[in-house]
Amino acid sequence: MRYAFLLFCLLTAAPGLLAQKPDAPRPPLEPRQERRTELPLELYNSDVQVQPLAEDSSVVVLVEQDGRLTSRPTYYFQKLDYRLQPGPVQLLEVPRGYEFQRICAEGTDVYALFSGLVEGTLWVAAFDTRTGELATGEFKTKRARQVHNLTALDGNLFVTVEVDQHLTVLLLNLQTAQFQFLPSVYEPLPARFTLVADSATRRAELILSETNGFKSRLQLKQLDQQGQLLRSEFVQAGSERGLLDAQLSSGDSAARVLAGTYTLRDSRFSQGLFAADLTAGTTPTGQRRSLRFYDFLSFKHFFDFMKPARVERLRQRQARLRDVARQPRHRYQLLMHDMVPTANGFTLVAEVYYARYTGGSGSYGLPGNFGSLPYGLPTGFGYPSRYNSFYSNNSRRPPNGYHFSHAIVMGLDRQGNLLWDNSFLLEDINRYQLEEVVALRPMADGRLVLAYLKDDKFFYKIVDQTTPSPNDWQVRLRTNPAAAAPAETARKNGEKGGEKGGEKGGEKTLSTYQEHLLPWYGSHFLAVGYQSVRPESGRVRDVFFLNDLAF
């Protein structure tokens, strides 16, 4: 499969090599690129999972390589510190017949989950990055089928799996080597829910979307570290609005804010966003006292991707519909990020995407760069463990991919009131799987940075609440940060530094595949992926790179 995918990537990359765009002007504020590590790995015979660790600002990679002599893949863990200096390799002896599924972390412990050829059999590896200790174990569940997500809480693993056309959660107790299917979670497919582990409160929060075909509501379930149900509550709107997906604030039980998307009868599309303070209680009729709705037209920047004349026509149409007591209908789908706590409340990012379909079986019918991730493989790079959502369309025909147009970012206070909003326009981003593209990091002065990777370019935007700012700032990933330092000094002195598409030392990036951007620590982003780099002299090197970009 890797050989076929490599050929596909080379064919899709060829048109771009024939007609490359000139470099954009240098932005006035650029990220620091002082650290980079290259692993001597090639795209066609390796897979790399990257798991950042917030506990000590390090990162762990799980590498799978094809076994050319043993006819079985080899695996190893390796930890890199905050300077991207690699530590010793920890070999992982995965039993024959198992393949990787998901990776996650809690504190400085990293967990990797594998599924076996025998249906319902799982194998877990637990890596203590402080001591280097490695523990493994097998679980014969018999009933668990497709693995969707993995998260850790207090040393236990919560695995989202399919069982008999239902979606449920399997708890793996690594101390006792026992497992149980949680009876409080058993939803018929297709299902939509988010499972988030909160290490501060030692609770797991489940946000389940329920619909009867006309009205949608949310059910919140709180579980302890042993999977026991502590409490359950419903959140629903009293009008014709239905609540779709949502995220819950974490880390502070005194401020429980729920924010997400709502719809008008059609559960496929979002009409706006809602927010609620769950500590405000309910009315005698059971309605939430603090439930607030924000139509997309009420945001200042949601429609920045449109021309002003078109936005004005939308507002005029909305006014006409309200005159006759009708609600305007939008057709947007949003992928919600985790809420990020701030000094005054919370920051929430949501990406606007469109599912793409084709009539033929052999064509994806998707424009732009679609070489980022192979179809049907795990998303990797630590994301399945961090964003525990399973999305399923009501359509019987699955989409062939997703196109992302822009991201909206908003600030909420501790009661869920909207304080400000902004947006980040994306440049022709397509993915085979529904995964987060944009990453968010705070700056020391209180501003935010939104960014994403495309090929070997780092696209970013500086967000200062509602203040307009450019959407097209970009820099190339440096393959030799040490050699690029003189170029940075020359640029500040008004001189020409570096070379087009490469480095001051004459290096040039020939191709970049499976690129992804991860939020790391502080104001640092972590860019990862495969690259072919041509040095000024010598042979082309194929590597898996990890670049630190900081503001």
Describe this structure in words.
The protein is mostly beta strands and 551 residues long. It has one domain (2-199, 326-550). 9% of the residues lie in helices and 48% in strands. It has helices at residues 2-18, 308-323, 383-386, 481-492, and strands spanning 32-39, 46-53, 58-65, 74-80, 86-92, 98-106, 109-116, 121-128, 134-140, 147-153, 156-163, 166-173, 178-188, 192-198, 203-211, 216-223, 229-235, 241-248, 257-264, 272-277, 292-295, 333-336, 340-341, 345-356, 389-390, 401-413, 418-431, 439-442, 448-454, 457-463, 473-476, 508-519, 524-534, 541-550.
Rounded radius of gyration (Å): 24 Å
Number of helices: 4
Quote the distance from N terminus to C terminus. Answer: 39 Å
- The count of DSSP E runs of length 2 or more, i.e. the number of strands, is 34
Strand content: over 45%
SS-derived structural category: mainly beta
**Helical fraction:** under 10%
Strand order of the largest sheet: 17-16-15-14-25
Mean pLDDT: 82
Q: Which residues sit in consecutive blocks of at least 5 with pLDDT less than 50?
A: 1-8, 10-21, 360-395, 484-502
> What is the domain total for the residues?
1
Mass-distribution shape: globular
Largest sheet: 5 strands, antiparallel
What's this entry about, in short?
This protein is mainly beta and 551 residues long. It has four helices and 34 strands. The protein has one domain.
Structural topology:
Layout (H helix, E strand, L loop, with lengths): L1 H17 L13 E8 L6 E8 L4 E8 L8 E7 L5 E7 L5 E9 L2 E8 L4 E8 L5 E7 L6 E7 L2 E8 L2 E8 L4 E11 L3 E7 L4 E9 L4 E8 L5 E7 L5 E8 L8 E8 L7 E6 L14 E4 L12 H16 L9 E4 L3 E2 L3 E12 L26 H4 L2 E2 L10 E13 L4 E14 L7 E4 L5 E7 L2 E7 L9 E4 L4 H12 L15 E12 L4 E11 L6 E10 L1
Antiparallel strand pairs: 1-34, 2-3, 3-4, 4-5, 6-7, 7-8, 8-9, 10-11, 11-12, 12-13, 14-15, 14-25, 15-16, 16-17, 18-19, 19-20, 20-21, 22-24, 23-24, 24-26, 26-27, 28-29, 29-30, 30-31, 32-33, 33-34
